[in-house]
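Hi support team,

I submitted a single chain yesterday and got back a structure, but I'm not sure I'm reading the C-alpha cell output correctly. Could someone confirm the output below corresponds to the sequence I sent? I've pasted both exactly as they appear in my results page.

Thanks,
R.
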Amino acid sequence: MNSTIILLILLITILAITLLSFFLYKIYKLLESKPIITEKTNNSDAVSELENLNKEKQKLLLSIQELSQQKTLLEKEIEKLREEIDKNNLYLKEKIREKENLNQEINKILEKAREEADEITKKAFEKLDSVSKEWENIQKQKQELWEKEKQISLIQRELEIKKQTLQDEKKELERISEEIKQKQEEINRAKEFIDLELQKIANLTPEEAKEILLKKIEEQTKSELLNTAMKIEKEYIKLAEQKAKRILVNTLSRITVDSVAENTTYSIVLPSEEYKGRIIGKEGRNIKAFEEITGVDLIIDDNSDVVFVSSFDPIRREKARLTLEKLISIGKINPIAIQEVYDQVEKEINIRIQEEGENACLQAKVFDLHPDLIYLIGKMKYRTSYGQNLLKHSIQVASIASILAAEIGANVEICRRAAFLHDIGKVLDESNGEPHAIAGAKIAKIYGEREEVVRAIASHHNEVPQETIEDLIVQIADSISASRPGARKETFDLYIQRLQKLEEVATSFNGVEKAFVLQGGKEVIVFVKPELINDQEVYNLAKEISKAIETSLKYPGIIRVTVIRKVIAVQLAR
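Hi R., thanks for writing in. Yes, this is the structure output for that exact sequence:
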C-alpha cells in the first residue's frame, strides 16, 4: 500500500513538471518565431501584433496561474498523502512490533514445548530402559527359577532315594537290634547257667567266676559287633556305588554328545577353468606368493575346477580360504592384491574369534570373563585336541561339571567356570614348555579368576595335587567328555604336534620373522627379518635350521628347508 501511494505522488509530480515545462517551451518558441520589427514595418501592423502577443501572454499567464493553483492543490494533496503515509507507517510499525512480540511469544511457547517434548522423550526412553532391564531381570529370574526348579527336583529325587535308604537302614537296624536283644537274653541265660556250673565244679567265689565269664562274653560280643559293622560298611559302599552310577548316568543322559573330527583341508570350487591360470600366475608367481603370505599348501586339481587349501593350523587354513574366495570374487590376483586381501581377512578373523568366544560363553553360561580370555576361548573354535574340537569339548565339559556339582551339592559356578577354561593353555602362543594345565592356570590367574578356579584348572591332569571336590569334578568331567567312543583320534594329534614342533624349531633362531610347514611336513619355509639377516647369512641359517631339525626330531623321509629374505619397497605416485 505504501509503495502504491508513493508511486502515485511521483506520477502527479512528474505530470505537473511536464505541463509547466511544456507551456514555457511554447512561450519560448512563440517569441523566437516572431520576426524582428524594422523601421520599414508599419506602425499599425506592429500595434496589432503587439496586442495579439499581449493577449497570448495573458492567456499564458492565466494558464500559468491555473497550473500554479493546480500545483498548490497537488502539493496539498501530496502533503495529505504524506501524512496518510506517515500514519500508515506508524500503523505498520506498530503491527510489526506486535508481530515480533507474537513471534517471540510463539518462539517461547515452541521452545517450552520442545523442552517438554525432550523431557517426555527422555523420560520415555528412561522408562523403556527400565522396562527392558526389568524384562531382562525377569528373564534372568525365570532362568534362575528354572535352574532352581531343576535343582529342587533333583534334590527331591535325591531326598526320596535317601528316605528310602534310611527306611531300609532303619529296618536293618531294628532287625540287628532285635538280634542283639535275643543274643543278650541268650547271654544272660548262659551266664546264669555258667555261674551255677562254675560254683558246682570249682572252688571259685562268685566274683571270680563272674569276672571270667564277663571276659568270655566280651570277646564273643566284640567279634559279633565287628562282623555286624563290616556288614553295614559293605552295604553302605554298595549304596554309594549305586548312587554314583546313577549320578553319572543321569549326567550323561542330559548332555549332547556330538563330535566333529576336524580336517586339514578346505576345498574351493572355482567359477571357471580360467581361474586356475590366474591363481598360478606367470611362472607360478601368484601361487608362490599366496603360499608364502598365508603359510598353507595350495593344491590345484587338474581334473576338476576345485582348489584345496591344506594346512595343519585351522586358523591359518581359514584365513587362506577366505583370502582365496575374496580374490576370486574380485577377479584380481597378484602378489600385492594377495597381501592386501590377506591383511583385511586377518582383521576379520580376529573379530570373528572374539564373537565366537562370546557365543561360547553364552552357551556355557559363564559370564564376566576378561576380554583377553574370551579371545583365547574363541581361538579354541579353530583348534583340536586328539581330533576333537577344543571349543565344543570345553562347552561340553562345563555342562557335565555343572550337572555333577548340582547332583552332589558342590559349588556349581566354580566347577562350570574351571571346566570351561580347563584347556585354555592349549591355545596360548607361548607356554614356555609347561603343561597346558599349568599354563592355563597361570593365564587364568593373571586375568583375575578366583583361586578355586585356578587350582581346578591346574589339577585336572594331576600336575598339581587336588584339594577339593570341585577339583575332582573338573577332572571327571574332562575324562567323561574325552572317553566317549569316537571322540578323539590320537594319531592325528601326534601328526599335528610334529608339524608344530617343526615350526617351533625354525622360529627359535634369531632373526626369523615367521615359519610355515608345507607339503604335510616335507617342507619348511622360513622368512627372516631383512634388517637383521643379510644375504650371506641366509645360507648359514638354512644349514643351522636343518641341523636343528635333524637332532631334535624324528621323521620319515627328507625335509626341505627354504629360507627367504625379502625386501619390498612401496611408494605412491600422486
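A quick pointer for reading it: Residues 2-32+54-138 form one domain. Let us know if anything else looks off.

Best,
Support desk
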